[in-house]
Protein backbone atom coordinates (compact mmCIF):
# COMPACT_ATOMS: atom_id res chain seq x y z
CA UNK A 1 0.00 0.00 0.00
CA UNK A 2 1.29 3.46 -0.88
CA UNK A 3 2.23 5.76 1.98
CA UNK A 4 -0.36 8.35 0.92
CA UNK A 5 -3.14 5.75 0.86
CA UNK A 6 -1.99 4.35 4.18
CA UNK A 7 -2.14 7.76 5.83
CA UNK A 8 -5.56 8.44 4.30
CA UNK A 9 -6.87 5.12 5.55
CA UNK A 10 -5.50 5.81 9.00
CA UNK A 11 -7.07 9.28 9.14
CA UNK A 12 -10.47 7.98 8.08
CA UNK A 13 -10.46 5.07 10.49
CA UNK A 14 -9.64 7.39 13.38
CA UNK A 15 -12.49 9.71 12.44
CA UNK A 16 -14.93 6.83 12.59
CA UNK A 17 -13.86 5.81 16.10
CA UNK A 18 -13.73 9.38 17.42
CA UNK A 19 -11.76 12.54 16.80
CA UNK A 20 -9.81 12.42 20.03
CA UNK A 21 -7.74 9.46 18.88
CA UNK A 22 -7.16 11.09 15.49
CA UNK A 23 -4.01 12.76 16.76
CA UNK A 24 -2.26 9.42 16.89
CA UNK A 25 -2.31 9.19 13.10
CA UNK A 26 0.74 11.42 12.90
CA UNK A 27 2.99 8.56 13.93
CA UNK A 28 2.78 7.20 10.40
CA UNK A 29 4.83 10.06 8.99
CA UNK A 30 8.50 9.45 8.25
CA UNK A 31 11.36 11.57 9.64
CA UNK A 32 11.99 15.05 8.35
CA UNK A 33 15.36 16.42 7.37
CA UNK A 34 17.17 17.75 10.44
CA UNK A 35 18.69 21.23 10.66
CA UNK A 36 22.28 21.65 11.92
CA UNK A 37 20.88 22.44 15.36
CA UNK A 38 19.25 19.02 15.50
CA UNK A 39 15.70 20.31 15.10
CA UNK A 40 13.41 19.70 12.19
CA UNK A 41 13.76 22.32 9.49
CA UNK A 42 10.19 23.51 10.01
CA UNK A 43 11.13 26.54 12.14
CA UNK A 44 13.65 27.88 9.62
CA UNK A 45 11.16 27.68 6.76
CA UNK A 46 8.48 29.70 8.48
CA UNK A 47 10.51 32.51 9.97
CA UNK A 48 10.83 31.30 13.55
CA UNK A 49 14.10 32.02 15.30
CA UNK A 50 15.71 29.00 16.94
CA UNK A 51 17.07 29.42 20.46
CA UNK A 52 18.21 27.11 23.22
CA UNK A 53 15.47 26.39 25.75
CA UNK A 54 17.86 27.46 28.51
CA UNK A 55 17.52 31.05 27.28
CA UNK A 56 13.90 30.99 28.44
CA UNK A 57 14.05 28.54 31.34
CA UNK A 58 17.33 29.42 33.06
CA UNK A 59 15.56 31.07 36.01
CA UNK A 60 13.36 28.06 36.77
CA UNK A 61 13.51 26.88 40.38
CA UNK A 62 14.26 23.22 41.09
CA UNK A 63 11.65 21.25 43.02
CA UNK A 64 12.42 17.66 44.08
CA UNK A 65 9.67 15.08 44.23
CA UNK A 66 8.15 14.52 47.70
CA UNK A 67 10.09 12.08 49.88
CA UNK A 68 8.72 8.58 49.73
CA UNK A 69 6.28 9.44 46.92
CA UNK A 70 6.16 8.89 43.19
CA UNK A 71 4.27 11.90 41.89
CA UNK A 72 3.37 12.34 38.21
CA UNK A 73 2.20 15.93 37.58
CA UNK A 74 -0.23 16.20 34.67
CA UNK A 75 -1.96 19.57 35.22
CA UNK A 76 -0.81 23.02 36.36
CA UNK A 77 -3.03 25.74 37.80
CA UNK A 78 -2.49 29.49 37.51
CA UNK A 79 -1.72 29.69 41.22
CA UNK A 80 1.27 27.38 40.90
CA UNK A 81 -0.21 24.07 42.04
CA UNK A 82 0.55 20.84 40.20
CA UNK A 83 -1.96 17.98 40.17
CA UNK A 84 -1.52 14.37 39.20
CA UNK A 85 -1.45 10.74 40.22
CA UNK A 86 0.78 9.56 43.06
CA UNK A 87 1.71 6.42 44.98
CA UNK A 88 3.64 5.90 48.20
CA UNK A 89 6.84 3.97 47.61
CA UNK A 90 6.37 0.43 48.84
CA UNK A 91 2.61 0.68 48.39
CA UNK A 92 2.35 0.70 44.61
CA UNK A 93 -1.03 -1.06 44.71
CA UNK A 94 -2.77 2.09 46.03
CA UNK A 95 -2.63 5.15 43.82
CA UNK A 96 -4.35 8.46 44.52
CA UNK A 97 -4.98 11.97 43.27
CA UNK A 98 -2.54 14.46 44.78
CA UNK A 99 -1.47 18.08 44.54
CA UNK A 100 1.79 19.91 45.19
CA UNK A 101 2.13 23.63 45.84
CA UNK A 102 5.20 24.62 43.83
CA UNK A 103 5.75 27.71 45.99
CA UNK A 104 5.58 26.09 49.44
CA UNK A 105 6.43 22.49 48.37
CA UNK A 106 3.37 21.30 50.32
CA UNK A 107 2.16 17.89 49.11
CA UNK A 108 -1.45 16.82 49.66
CA UNK A 109 -3.36 13.61 49.06
CA UNK A 110 -6.82 14.44 47.72
CA UNK A 111 -8.51 11.08 47.11
CA UNK A 112 -7.57 7.41 47.02
CA UNK A 113 -8.47 5.63 43.80
CA UNK A 114 -11.17 2.99 44.20
CA UNK A 115 -9.30 -0.06 42.92
CA UNK A 116 -11.90 -1.95 40.93
CA UNK A 117 -8.97 -3.63 39.15
CA UNK A 118 -5.18 -3.36 39.08
CA UNK A 119 -5.56 -1.15 36.00
CA UNK A 120 -7.54 1.62 37.71
CA UNK A 121 -5.97 5.07 37.45
CA UNK A 122 -6.80 8.74 37.87
CA UNK A 123 -6.68 11.38 35.13
CA UNK A 124 -6.93 15.13 35.77
CA UNK A 125 -9.18 16.80 33.19
CA UNK A 126 -9.34 20.41 34.43
CA UNK A 127 -7.87 22.58 37.19
CA UNK A 128 -8.66 26.10 38.35
CA UNK A 129 -8.15 28.17 41.50
CA UNK A 130 -11.27 26.71 43.11
CA UNK A 131 -12.01 23.34 41.49
CA UNK A 132 -10.47 20.19 40.04
CA UNK A 133 -12.27 17.86 37.62
CA UNK A 134 -10.80 14.36 37.45
CA UNK A 135 -11.70 10.86 36.39
CA UNK A 136 -11.06 7.46 37.88
CA UNK A 137 -10.99 4.93 35.07
CA UNK A 138 -10.65 1.17 35.01
CA UNK A 139 -8.91 0.03 31.82
CA UNK A 140 -9.64 -3.63 32.49
CA UNK A 141 -13.40 -3.28 32.99
CA UNK A 142 -13.54 -0.17 30.76
CA UNK A 143 -15.56 1.97 33.15
CA UNK A 144 -15.02 5.44 34.57
CA UNK A 145 -16.35 7.99 37.08
CA UNK A 146 -15.97 11.79 36.96
CA UNK A 147 -15.52 13.79 40.15
CA UNK A 148 -15.57 17.46 41.06
CA UNK A 149 -13.23 18.50 43.88
CA UNK A 150 -13.93 21.89 45.47
CA UNK A 151 -10.65 23.12 46.87
CA UNK A 152 -11.85 25.58 49.51
CA UNK A 153 -14.24 23.30 51.40
CA UNK A 154 -12.53 20.05 50.31
CA UNK A 155 -15.80 18.56 49.09
CA UNK A 156 -16.14 15.82 46.51
CA UNK A 157 -19.09 15.47 44.12
CA UNK A 158 -19.76 12.80 41.51
CA UNK A 159 -20.40 14.48 38.17
CA UNK A 160 -20.84 11.44 35.96
CA UNK A 161 -21.29 7.99 37.47
CA UNK A 162 -19.74 4.82 36.18
CA UNK A 163 -19.91 4.68 32.42
CA UNK A 164 -18.37 2.69 29.56
CA UNK A 165 -15.05 3.99 28.24
CA UNK A 166 -12.48 3.08 25.63
CA UNK A 167 -9.16 1.54 26.53
CA UNK A 168 -7.60 4.97 27.02
CA UNK A 169 -10.21 7.59 27.94
CA UNK A 170 -9.62 11.13 26.75
CA UNK A 171 -11.65 13.97 28.23
CA UNK A 172 -11.55 17.73 27.82
CA UNK A 173 -13.22 20.38 29.94
CA UNK A 174 -13.91 24.08 29.34
CA UNK A 175 -15.32 26.62 31.77
CA UNK A 176 -17.35 29.82 31.61
CA UNK A 177 -17.99 31.31 35.07
CA UNK A 178 -20.09 28.70 36.90
CA UNK A 179 -20.66 26.49 33.86
CA UNK A 180 -18.51 23.49 32.99
CA UNK A 181 -18.52 21.90 29.55
CA UNK A 182 -17.29 18.31 29.65
CA UNK A 183 -16.54 16.36 26.49
CA UNK A 184 -16.51 12.63 27.22
CA UNK A 185 -17.18 9.26 25.66
CA UNK A 186 -20.73 8.02 26.14
CA UNK A 187 -20.15 4.66 24.45
CA UNK A 188 -19.27 3.15 21.08
CA UNK A 189 -16.55 5.79 20.57
CA UNK A 190 -19.15 8.57 20.59
CA UNK A 191 -18.06 11.76 22.34
CA UNK A 192 -20.68 14.29 23.49
CA UNK A 193 -20.56 17.61 25.36
CA UNK A 194 -22.38 17.98 28.67
CA UNK A 195 -22.97 21.29 30.46
CA UNK A 196 -22.80 21.31 34.28
CA UNK A 197 -23.97 24.18 36.47
CA UNK A 198 -21.66 24.48 39.49
CA UNK A 199 -24.23 26.46 41.47
CA UNK A 200 -27.36 24.35 40.97
CA UNK A 201 -25.82 20.98 40.18
CA UNK A 202 -28.02 20.64 37.08
CA UNK A 203 -26.67 19.36 33.79
CA UNK A 204 -27.76 18.91 30.19
CA UNK A 205 -26.36 17.65 26.91
CA UNK A 206 -25.62 20.53 24.56
CA UNK A 207 -24.03 18.50 21.77
CA UNK A 208 -25.14 14.94 21.11
CA UNK A 209 -23.19 14.52 17.87
CA UNK A 210 -19.63 13.16 17.86
CA UNK A 211 -17.53 16.12 18.98
CA UNK A 212 -14.44 17.20 20.84
CA UNK A 213 -11.98 19.90 21.96
CA UNK A 214 -14.36 22.35 23.69
CA UNK A 215 -12.87 25.80 24.32
CA UNK A 216 -14.52 28.90 25.75
CA UNK A 217 -13.41 31.94 23.75
CA UNK A 218 -15.05 35.31 24.32
CA UNK A 219 -18.83 34.73 24.26
CA UNK A 220 -18.84 31.29 22.66
CA UNK A 221 -18.00 27.68 23.28
CA UNK A 222 -16.06 26.45 20.25
CA UNK A 223 -15.64 22.77 19.46
CA UNK A 224 -14.99 20.34 16.61
CA UNK A 225 -17.83 18.18 15.30
CA UNK A 226 -17.36 15.00 13.25
CA UNK A 227 -19.71 13.68 10.60
CA UNK A 228 -18.89 9.98 10.51
CA UNK A 229 -20.97 9.43 7.39
CA UNK A 230 -19.63 12.23 5.22
CA UNK A 231 -16.18 12.01 6.86
CA UNK A 232 -15.96 15.76 7.37
CA UNK A 233 -15.19 17.99 10.34
CA UNK A 234 -16.79 21.26 11.43
CA UNK A 235 -15.92 24.11 13.76
CA UNK A 236 -19.05 24.93 15.76
CA UNK A 237 -19.62 28.08 17.83
CA UNK A 238 -22.19 27.69 20.64
CA UNK A 239 -23.44 31.00 22.03
CA UNK A 240 -23.17 31.17 25.82
CA UNK A 241 -25.93 33.78 25.92
CA UNK A 242 -28.70 32.48 23.66
CA UNK A 243 -27.56 28.82 23.29
CA UNK A 244 -27.68 28.99 19.50
CA UNK A 245 -25.17 27.07 17.39
CA UNK A 246 -23.54 28.09 14.15
CA UNK A 247 -21.01 26.34 11.94
CA UNK A 248 -18.17 28.77 11.27
CA UNK A 249 -16.06 26.47 9.12
CA UNK A 250 -15.95 22.92 7.84
CA UNK A 251 -13.85 20.58 5.74
CA UNK A 252 -15.45 19.44 2.52
CA UNK A 253 -13.30 16.54 1.35
CA UNK A 254 -10.96 13.91 2.72
CA UNK A 255 -7.86 16.09 2.37
CA UNK A 256 -8.18 18.20 5.54
CA UNK A 257 -9.53 17.49 9.01
CA UNK A 258 -9.75 19.60 12.15
CA UNK A 259 -8.08 17.50 14.83
CA UNK A 260 -7.58 19.98 17.67
CA UNK A 261 -8.79 23.35 18.89
CA UNK A 262 -7.16 25.46 21.61
CA UNK A 263 -7.21 28.93 23.12
CA UNK A 264 -5.09 31.03 25.46
CA UNK A 265 -8.07 33.30 26.20
CA UNK A 266 -6.97 35.88 23.63
CA UNK A 267 -6.60 33.84 20.45
CA UNK A 268 -8.06 30.69 18.98
CA UNK A 269 -5.87 28.11 17.24
CA UNK A 270 -6.83 25.24 14.95
CA UNK A 271 -4.77 22.13 14.29
CA UNK A 272 -5.43 20.77 10.81
CA UNK A 273 -4.44 17.34 9.52
CA UNK A 274 -3.42 17.52 5.86
CA UNK A 275 -3.89 14.19 4.12
CA UNK A 276 -2.16 15.35 0.93
CA UNK A 277 1.31 15.63 2.47
CA UNK A 278 0.65 13.87 5.79
CA UNK A 279 1.39 16.98 7.86
CA UNK A 280 -0.27 18.89 10.68
CA UNK A 281 -0.72 22.66 10.48
CA UNK A 282 -1.37 25.15 13.26
CA UNK A 283 -3.61 27.97 12.02
CA UNK A 284 -5.21 30.99 13.68
CA UNK A 285 -8.94 31.73 13.59
CA UNK A 286 -8.53 33.52 10.25
CA UNK A 287 -6.78 30.45 8.81
CA UNK A 288 -3.41 32.14 8.65
CA UNK A 289 -0.81 29.39 8.76
CA UNK A 290 1.54 29.54 11.74
CA UNK A 291 3.64 26.46 10.99
CA UNK A 292 3.36 22.83 9.93
CA UNK A 293 4.93 19.74 11.43
CA UNK A 294 4.88 15.99 10.90
CA UNK A 295 3.54 15.22 14.38
CA UNK A 296 1.63 17.11 17.07
CA UNK A 297 -0.10 15.53 20.06
CA UNK A 298 -1.36 16.74 23.47
CA UNK A 299 -1.07 20.42 22.56
CA UNK A 300 -1.24 23.09 25.29
CA UNK A 301 -1.60 26.80 24.44
CA UNK A 302 -1.25 29.29 27.30
CA UNK A 303 -0.17 32.92 27.42
CA UNK A 304 2.12 33.31 24.38
CA UNK A 305 3.47 29.75 24.49
CA UNK A 306 2.55 26.53 22.70
CA UNK A 307 3.83 23.09 23.60
CA UNK A 308 3.10 19.65 22.18
CA UNK A 309 4.60 16.20 21.79
CA UNK A 310 6.13 15.68 18.35
CA UNK A 311 8.70 13.91 16.24
CA UNK A 312 12.00 13.01 17.86
CA UNK A 313 14.67 15.53 16.84
CA UNK A 314 17.52 13.08 17.26
CA UNK A 315 18.00 9.43 16.40
CA UNK A 316 19.42 8.97 19.90
CA UNK A 317 16.19 10.13 21.52
CA UNK A 318 14.24 7.28 23.12
CA UNK A 319 11.45 8.97 25.05
CA UNK A 320 8.78 11.31 23.74
CA UNK A 321 10.00 14.61 22.28
CA UNK A 322 8.41 17.83 23.50
CA UNK A 323 8.36 21.15 21.67
CA UNK A 324 8.12 24.70 23.00
CA UNK A 325 7.22 27.75 20.90
CA UNK A 326 6.80 31.46 21.62
CA UNK A 327 4.11 32.42 19.10
CA UNK A 328 4.19 36.16 19.83
CA UNK A 329 7.91 36.65 19.25
CA UNK A 330 8.17 33.75 16.77
CA UNK A 331 10.78 31.77 18.66
CA UNK A 332 11.24 28.01 18.59
CA UNK A 333 12.99 26.94 21.79
CA UNK A 334 15.01 23.76 21.26
CA UNK A 335 13.95 21.60 24.19
CA UNK A 336 15.28 18.13 25.01
CA UNK A 337 13.95 17.26 28.46
CA UNK A 338 10.70 15.73 29.74
CA UNK A 339 7.00 16.64 29.75
CA UNK A 340 5.92 20.30 29.81
CA UNK A 341 2.87 21.76 31.56
CA UNK A 342 1.73 25.33 30.94
CA UNK A 343 -0.59 27.71 32.76
CA UNK A 344 -1.44 31.32 32.00
CA UNK A 345 1.22 32.38 34.48
CA UNK A 346 4.00 29.83 34.29
CA UNK A 347 5.63 26.61 33.14
CA UNK A 348 6.40 23.32 34.87
CA UNK A 349 8.94 21.18 33.06
CA UNK A 350 10.74 17.96 33.89
CA UNK A 351 14.53 18.22 33.68
CA UNK A 352 16.33 14.95 33.04
CA UNK A 353 19.38 14.23 35.19
CA UNK A 354 20.57 11.56 32.78
CA UNK A 355 20.33 10.85 29.08
CA UNK A 356 16.77 9.86 28.33
CA UNK A 357 18.01 6.48 27.07
CA UNK A 358 19.47 5.80 30.54
CA UNK A 359 16.17 6.37 32.35
CA UNK A 360 14.22 3.10 32.74
CA UNK A 361 10.75 2.93 31.29
CA UNK A 362 8.17 4.28 33.73
CA UNK A 363 10.84 5.68 36.07
CA UNK A 364 11.03 9.32 34.94
CA UNK A 365 9.37 10.81 38.02
CA UNK A 366 12.00 9.74 40.54
CA UNK A 367 14.55 12.04 42.14
CA UNK A 368 17.48 9.99 40.83
CA UNK A 369 16.36 10.52 37.23
CA UNK A 370 14.73 13.95 37.04
CA UNK A 371 13.68 17.08 38.89
CA UNK A 372 10.67 19.35 38.52
CA UNK A 373 11.49 22.89 37.36
CA UNK A 374 9.02 25.76 37.73
CA UNK A 375 9.09 29.30 36.41
CA UNK A 376 6.48 32.06 36.38
CA UNK A 377 6.24 34.60 33.62
From TrEMBL:
Keywords of the record, alphabetical order, are:
Membrane, Transmembrane, Transmembrane helix
Where do transmembrane segments lie in this chain? Answer: 12-30
SUPFAM superfamilies membership: Peptidase/esterase 'gauge' domain (SSF50993)
- What is the protein's name according to its record? DUF5050 domain-containing protein
Q: Which organism is it from?
A: Streptococcus parasanguinis CC87K
Phylogenetic lineage: Bacteria, Bacillati, Bacillota, Bacilli, Lactobacillales
Amino acid sequence: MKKKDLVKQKFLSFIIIGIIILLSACTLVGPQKKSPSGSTNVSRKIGFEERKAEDLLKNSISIPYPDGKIFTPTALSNDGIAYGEAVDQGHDNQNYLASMNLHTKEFQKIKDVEKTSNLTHVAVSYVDHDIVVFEEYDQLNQTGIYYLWKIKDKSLTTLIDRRPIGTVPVTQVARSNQKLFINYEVGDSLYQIEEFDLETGSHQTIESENSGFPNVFKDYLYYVQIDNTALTTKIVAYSLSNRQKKVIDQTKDDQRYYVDLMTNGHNLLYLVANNKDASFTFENKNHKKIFSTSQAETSIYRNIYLTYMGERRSEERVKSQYYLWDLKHRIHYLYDHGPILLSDKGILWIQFKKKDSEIPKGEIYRNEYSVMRYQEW
